[in-house]
Design goal:
By secondary structure, the chain is mainly α. The chain is built from 5 helices and no strands. Helix 2 crosses helix 3 and helix 4 runs antiparallel to helix 5. It is extended, with a radius of gyration of 28 Å. The N terminus is likely disordered.
């Protein structure tokens, strides 16, 4: 319908600028021919609706991408968890002191600290790699693999060095 008093699903009687316009819906009478047959065939063949991670061979690029996201989420959880410790009785330093009382020798503590620091170092170094990409550098396949392995090695070295220092 057209005119100033056209029906409008959002504001009845106020759709004059939209007169003659169609509003989108989630259902449609327009269907692609063969769609139902296609999905029926896929179901009979026990194929997934869309490609899934299980059909791809893991590559360095995909593993590093997923690891970057996981390390970011993990450190976010650690930081928020440490923040919660500041409001608990005794404060953050109280809980650090409790952990120090149970700390084993340096032979065990350095590897434990290195394991704790590895995701942080990985996420930080990989963040610089992403900044280089933002500048348009290092997009060649050989460069991506070279920077990927270099970033992993540098992350391990930095986490070990910091574990010894801290």
């Amino acid at each position: 319908s057209s005119g100033i008093n056209a029906e409008c699903p959002l504001r009845p009687g106020r759709c004059a600028p939209f007169s003659g316009a169609r509003f989108l819906t989630t259902t449609s009478a327009y269907k692609v021919k063969g769609t139902e047959e296609f999905f029926a065939k896929q179901k009979v063949l026990a194929r997934p609706m869309s490609p899934h991670l299980t059909i791809y061979k893991p590559q360095l690029t995909s593993v590093l991408s997923i690891s970057h996201r996981a390390s970011g989420v993990g450190w976010g959880v650690v930081i928020y968890g440490a923040t919660v410790l500041t409001v608990l009785p005794g404060g953050f330093s109280h809980y650090v002191h409790l952990l120090e009382q149970y700390a084993p020798g340096a032979g065990v503590m350095v590897p434990l600290k290195a394991l704790l620091l590895l995701p942080l170092m990985y996420h930080s170094v990989n963040g610089f790699r992403h900044l280089a990409w933002d500048l348009g550098k290092g997009f060649g396949i050989a460069e991506v693999y070279k920077s990927g392995w270099s970033m992993v090695a540098l992350s391990v070295v930095l986490s070990l060095v910091l574990a010894v220092i801290l």
